[in-house]
Amino acid sequence: MDKTKFYTLNTSYINCKHEELWALISTTDGWNQFLTDVALIEGKKKRIEIGDEVDFIIGELTNKSICIIKEAPHRIVFWDKYKALLPDGSYREYELHTDFTLQEISENFIKITVKVDGYEDDEVMQWIRECGDMGWRQTLYNIKSVLELGLDLRNDIFNYPRIGVINYTATPDQLLQANSSHEGNFIMKVYPNSPAYSAGLRESDIITHINGKPVATYYEFVRTLSHYFNKENLIEVVYLRNKHLNKLNIQLTYDDQYTGMIDPEQTPLEDVALVRKEKSIIDEA
């Protein structure tokens, strides 16, 4: 059994004072500086202590998280209870543990490690795990930018163009069944009326290339789409269907239905869900 499918591990090295980095991950004000739209503890206290339930909201993602371990100023662990609003207006709930550890390599040079575990062995959770792994890579990059440069880049990092699908790194069995000599991204879901749907992409297709670049993994898929931030808005996609390679063009979109870049303080998630459900109705005529 591949145990790595049940957790993710990401690290970064940051030039800053130890207490600056610790304050970022152990206070609600700190979280709002690098990731969350809302980070709130009942009573509006700022410092997170063991037993505190923290409401974290990141765009369309809500997390009622409990601090279960705190070893100041080196380690803090959260028991996360996520509720994700999907592009079709439905929700997915799941639980994880997120473990932050800080190690002082030298004065003003800190190693931060984020380990997330608790992923289940099913198709949707494989997508969530790969999303989460990429998300923490991006978040650690933003933490580094905030502390070293004073720049919060989260909107630029996360607001890359989308095509309107749920995809993950195709498994060996899926590639074998598709008789594929290329690795790629398995399309688990194509959302109705999305750019991918309108172009003709469907569930179980395997995307192997975008504009001639191989996208063997989910990481490469996201990295390639991110390359087109504020650039071209039409991409050529090579995909496998019925054991044959095909091509089509897809118009990239920044619609918050797929990017998740919404302001939950301005628009209640319940209202966003209703709009997304309406957008997902296919006009059969």
TrEMBL record:
InterPro entries in the record: PDZ, PDZ_sf, START-like_dom_sf
Domain (PDZ) ranges: 184-227
Domain of life: Bacteria
PROSITE patterns named in the record: PDZ
Designated name of the protein: PDZ domain-containing protein
Organism, as annotated: Fictibacillus solisalsi
Pfam families assigned to the protein according to its UniProt record, in alphabetical order: PDZ_2
